[in-house]
């Protein structure tokens, strides 16, 4: 404790000195040769500007979305191998690929909440890519909770077959079982059925659709669905993908297509495979478009975002995204409701029991934004100009240090949830256990605290969160 | 003490009404409640021209007069800074920008949104839908089933008698679904099923059939309307009362509710004219209700017949009545004491979470906050760069005033204080003792196009019992209840409203109804397929306005529609 205090004091002193020197980088090399010598203040380049921070942020957007695309393509490949040859090994490989695909994507979510490509990318009437807030692919990629009962078989807590909207799905109450209404399951069908009839609850595409088709409903190990959950994730058997043409040569038990029951019709397994591949293909397409928009140099959003005249706006949008992801999305929608109401349905990746990673990765994304860093899936560490640097350069060294500490505190608490899950107690079980619930609450509190500081930083840098309606005063009619 | 206060309060209201009525016609009259000085920009020695004033009475909002021939500068921002610029199928689902910018408020909004979209533990035993969003589709309107084989999901029938009493067995609405232990999913009604088997079936199967009705504009062009006939069969708990009346309701939108809630009562009462003292044929009447926690009398401004005074009262009622989800405000399951099968099922519900009710106060307060802070979409037809309106929209605006639509669909209001929830301030994890005003809703000039008052819309209703052949009958499974009405009446009084009265619904956002939900239709029961059909259904106090529309040229009708679609 004492040590930490000392380090903090040292940092503060260093920073104070820097501020006293008036060294804001404007004096060129003379500035760096000032009080702190050639290494700059506190190991930070004195020349970091808002433009640098925004450039780094745009480059890392490209890196993280590109990683997501690479991982999604690998997932697509593994899914194709599974449906062509549904062996246990291929099934496991597809599930591993899904888990791996979530790692980069979770870190991109901090690029939401700013009218950026993920939330706003769409084509205008002339067929050109434009940003229209709310029209982007985010919902199609990552919306949840999933309407699994509209996709495939499920059971309810009474052990009866769950049904989607029987009025819409004539035969079986879900898309896979309703051959009459949906003869072929394609990408186009999923696009059309996503948010069916305008109702947000009917999510049938994206990561979580693929997840459900790989894992199935998160039942207990004895395949019951009860209020008291166990540690296991979904138990979909590989035979759900067996068709006459694809049953593996080494199938020893004579099993055929299953669909919540033995001996289901071949067509059901074929259609399940169609759904799975269509969902994976659509995911790749959607991510490809986002990657293109962020491509350094030629990506249309990359150039807009990093333009000199847009720098302040882009910087402000980084803070807005950090604050809104930390508080509203992660602490609020993804954690507080699940823990308060002990609701598995409100858990993010409920089929695979991967919610601990969603939480950790979202929090990591926010920290990355602050520290100007991102570690690629292949291990390459990208480190660029950071908000931290900028705050120090602008003389807000104490605040910078508080923020750094707050992000580290959040990561520390999020790691408790993450590690507890990796040690066998998944998030949906943690929220049923009084002691583990406290860990979840601690993470929420840490996120709340970091958001307060994010707001302070916005004020300190004199940024204005964009509001196109500003200037309208009530009396000015 | 309380009594006296209440008395004084009413007396004060009366004075306000009288003053505003007396002050009618003079733009010089000063405001009795806010003390805003009269407009001094006009030289005192000339008589100001008021011929282009939309209202002869003076609102007490301190704003310059609303003009019939010139749009306000920021009229394109339907809710001022609480307007959203989103115009796609999420247009009704946006938080007020000032809320988005405060992460701690944004978080509560999102949490409330999540609960609004979720199913709940302890739903049923009787219900119409399993989530708020299931009826308020994308925070907008519900829809009429596309065939009589489809159960009503986002509309329902209220039930009662011609005197305004609820049905002794079925209560005040027909829940078409039930929950039965051991059976999967929503259970539809089965004739006398609850009586014979003691199981909590849905109450009855309800559907609508339409008759086509022809009419003609003055220019000779014809139009058709769909006249609804409501039918009920499979009554699971026995017959209705002898004098039964039904009232069909399609779920209304929820955006903008917090702003509507924040309009001061006195500002609404300025427009009330219960005895039609100005002889314009329009007599807006205020409805009242009791505040559910304090019992205080307050203006009823929500519900299609103005029966609830606050969003909290409205949502807790909807949770119980529409979803069978109980809360601290409405702790009783939606079973009447003549529905033992419903009571039996209620005992099996899993209430473990929240002190014996299905929904805890944190969720309830978050959903309340969500509803209060939904923004209103910006209008279309206005070019901000050149500061000009499309000519058809502008022409239509003029016709809207000329036809006197604005007398009920009062365009402009100004919000006052937006007090914190009576439940207390809510954050992500708890409810606090404090009750902080939602300043993002306060002191805004808004354009909801409603007076929030009751109006006689004309018509009458008749309920019969018929076999499929149309032959009259008195009992039995094949003997269906049939309600036919002329005009908009439902024949079922509710709260302070009679069987011919409805509360003026707000029109803001109406132009995006089909963008948000292509299947949505118009009017309280969704009978109007287009905005034009909705206009043509207006009767009673609105008959003169409807006649004006009939007498318009085709070009004028098209301009008026362009205006309404721009809202």
From TrEMBL, chain A:
Name the UniProt record assigns to this protein: Iron-regulated protein
Keyword Ion transport: no
Main location (coarse class): other
Keyword flag Signal: yes
Source organism (scientific name): Pseudoalteromonas aurantia 208
Signal peptide as annotated in the record: 1-18
Matching Gene3D superfamilies: M75 peptidase, HXXE motif (1.20.1420.20)
Domain (Imelysin-like) ranges: 61-453
Keywords, ordered alphabetically: Signal
Superkingdom, taxonomy of origin: Bacteria
Cellular location(s): Cell envelope
UniProtKB/TrEMBL annotation, chain B:
Name of a matching Pfam family: DHOR
Alphabetized UniProt keyword annotations: Heme, Iron, Metal-binding, Signal
Source domain of life: Bacteria
Entry-linked InterPro entries: Cyt_c-like_dom, Cyt_c-like_dom_sf, Cytochrome_c_Peroxidase/MauG, DHOR
Signal peptide residues on this chain, from the entry's feature table: 1-23
Entry keyword Metal-binding: yes
Region (Disordered): 25-70
Occurrences of domain Cytochrome c (ranges): 391-567
Keyword Coiled coil tagged: no
Biased composition (Low complexity): 29-51
PROSITE patterns given in the database record: CYTC, PROKAR_LIPOPROTEIN
Family annotation (PANTHER family): CYTOCHROME C DOMAIN-CONTAINING PROTEIN, CYTOCHROME C PEROXIDASE-RELATED
Protein's name according to its UniProt entry: Cytochrome c domain-containing protein
Annotated source species: Pseudoalteromonas aurantia 208
């Amino acid at each position: 404790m004492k040590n930490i205090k000392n380090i903090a004091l040292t940092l503060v002193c260093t920073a104070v000195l820097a501020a006293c020197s008036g060294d804001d980088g404007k004096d060129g090399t003379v500035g760096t040769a000032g009080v702190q010598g050639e290494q700059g203040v506190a190991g930070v380049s004195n020349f970091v500007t808002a433009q640098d921070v925004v450039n780094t942020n745009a480059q890392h957007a490209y890196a993280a979305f590109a990683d997501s695309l690479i991982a999604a393509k690998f997932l697509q490949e593994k899914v194709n191998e599974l449906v062509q040859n549904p062996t246990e090994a291929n099934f496991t490989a597809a599930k591993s690929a899904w888990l791996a695909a979530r790692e980069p994507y979770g870190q991109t979510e901090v690029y939401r909440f700013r009218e950026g490509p993920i939330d706003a990318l769409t084509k205008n009437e002339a067929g050109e890519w434009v940003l229209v807030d709310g029209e982007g692919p985010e919902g199609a990629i990552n919306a949840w909770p999933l309407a699994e009962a509209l996709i495939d078989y499920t059971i309810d807590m009474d052990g009866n077959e769950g049904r989607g909207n029987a009025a819409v799905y004539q035969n079986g109450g879900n898309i896979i079982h309703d051959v009459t209404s949906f003869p072929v399951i394609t990408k186009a069908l999923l696009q059309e059925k996503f948010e069916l009839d305008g109702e947000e609850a009917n999510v049938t595409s994206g990561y979580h659709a693929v997840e459900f088709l790989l894992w199935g409903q998160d039942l207990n190990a004895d395949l019951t669905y009860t209020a008291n959950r166990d540690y296991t994730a979904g138990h979909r058997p590989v035979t759900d993908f067996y068709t006459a043409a694809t049953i593996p040569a080494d199938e020893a038990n004579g099993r055929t297509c299953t669909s919540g029951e033995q001996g289901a019709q071949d067509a059901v397994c074929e259609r399940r495979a169609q759904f799975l591949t269509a969902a994976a293909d659509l995911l790749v397409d959607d991510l490809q478009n986002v990657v293109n928009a962020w491509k350094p140099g030629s990506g249309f959003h990359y150039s807009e975002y990093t333009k000199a005249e847009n720098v302040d706006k882009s910087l402000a949008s980084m803070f807005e995204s950090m604050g809104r992801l930390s508080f509203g999305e992660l602490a609020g929608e993804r954690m507080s409701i699940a823990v308060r109401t002990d609701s598995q349905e409100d858990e993010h990746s409920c089929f695979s029991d991967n919610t601990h990673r969603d939480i950790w990765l979202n929090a990591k994304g926010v920290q990355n934004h602050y520290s100007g860093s991102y570690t690629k899936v292949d291990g390459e560490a990208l480190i660029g100009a950071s908000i931290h640097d900028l705050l120090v350069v602008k003389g807000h060294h104490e605040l910078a240090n508080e923020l750094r500490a707050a992000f580290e505190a959040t990561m520390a608490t999020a790691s408790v949830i993450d590690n507890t899950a990796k040690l066998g107690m998944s998030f949906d079980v943690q929220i049923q256990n009084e002691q583990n619930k406290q860990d979840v609450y601690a993470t929420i509190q840490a996120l709340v605290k970091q958001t307060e500081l994010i707001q302070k930083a916005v004020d300190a840098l004199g940024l204005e969160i964009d509001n196109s309606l500003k200037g309208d005063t009530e009396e000015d009619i | 003490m309380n009594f006296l206060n209440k008395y004084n309060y009413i007396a004060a209201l009366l004075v306000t009404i009288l003053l505003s009525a007396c002050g009618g016609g003079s733009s010089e009259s000063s405001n009795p409640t806010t003390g805003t000085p009269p407009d001094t920009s006009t030289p005192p020695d000339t008589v100001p021209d008021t011929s282009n004033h939309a209202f002869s009475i003076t609102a007490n909002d301190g704003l310059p007069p609303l003009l019939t021939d010139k749009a306000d500068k920021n009229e394109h921002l339907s809710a001022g800074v609480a307007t959203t610029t989103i115009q796609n199928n999420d247009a009704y689902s946006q938080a007020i920008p000032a809320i988005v910018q405060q992460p701690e408020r944004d978080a509560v909004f999102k949490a409330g949104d999540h609960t609004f979209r979720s199913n709940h533990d302890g739903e049923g035993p009787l219900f119409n839908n399993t989530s708020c969003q299931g009826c308020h589709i994308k925070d907008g309107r519900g829809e009429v089933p596309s065939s009589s084989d489809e159960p009503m999901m986002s509309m329902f029938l209220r039930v009662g008698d011609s005197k305004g009493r609820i049905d002794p067995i079925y209560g005040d609405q027909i829940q078409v679904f039930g929950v039965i232990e051991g059976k999967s999913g929503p259970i539809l009604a089965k004739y006398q099923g609850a009586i014979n088997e003691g199981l909590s079936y849905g109450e009855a199967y309800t559907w609508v059939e339409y008759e086509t009705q022809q009419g003609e504009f003055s220019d000779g062009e014809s139009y058709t309307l769909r006249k609804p006939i409501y039918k009920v069969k499979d009554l699971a708990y026995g017959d209705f009362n002898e004098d039964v009346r039904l009232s069909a309701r399609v779920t209304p939108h929820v955006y903008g509710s917090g702003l509507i809630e924040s309009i001061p009562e006195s500002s609404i009462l300025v427009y009330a004219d219960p005895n039609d003292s100005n002889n314009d044929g329009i007599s807006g009447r205020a409805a009242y209700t009791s505040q559910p926690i304090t019992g205080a009398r307050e203006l009823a401004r929500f519900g299609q017949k103005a029966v609830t005074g606050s969003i909290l009262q409205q949502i807790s009622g909807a949770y119980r009545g529409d979803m069978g989800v109980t809360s601290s405000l409405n702790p009783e399951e939606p079973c009447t004491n003549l529905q033992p099968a419903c009571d039996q099922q209620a005992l099996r519900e899993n209430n473990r979470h929240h002190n014996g009710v299905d929904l805890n106060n944190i969720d309830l307060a978050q959903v309340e906050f969500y509803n209060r802070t939904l923004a209103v979409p910006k209008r279309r037809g206005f070019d901000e760069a050149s500061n000009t309106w499309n000519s058809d929209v502008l022409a239509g605006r003029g016709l809207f005033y000329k036809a006197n639509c604005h007398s009920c669909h009062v365009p402009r209001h100004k919000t006052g204080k937006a007090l914190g929830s009576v439940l207390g301030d809510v954050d992500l994890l708890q409810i606090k003792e404090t009750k902080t005003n939602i300043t993002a809703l306060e002191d805004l000039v808004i354009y909801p196009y409603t007076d929030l008052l009751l109006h006689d819309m004309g018509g009458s209703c008749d309920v019969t019992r018929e076999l499929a052949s149309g032959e009259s009958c008195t009992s039995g499974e094949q003997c269906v209840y049939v309600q036919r009405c002329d005009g908009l009446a439902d024949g079922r009084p509710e709260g302070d409203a009679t069987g011919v009265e409805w509360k003026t619904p707000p029109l803001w956002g109406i132009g995006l109804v089909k963008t948000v939900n292509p299947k949505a239709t118009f009017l309280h029961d969704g009978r109007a397929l287009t905005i034009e059909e909705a206009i043509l259904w207006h009767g009673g106090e609105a008959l003169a306005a409807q006649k004006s529309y009939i007498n318009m040229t085709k070009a004028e009708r098209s301009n008026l529609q362009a205006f309404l679609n721009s809202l």
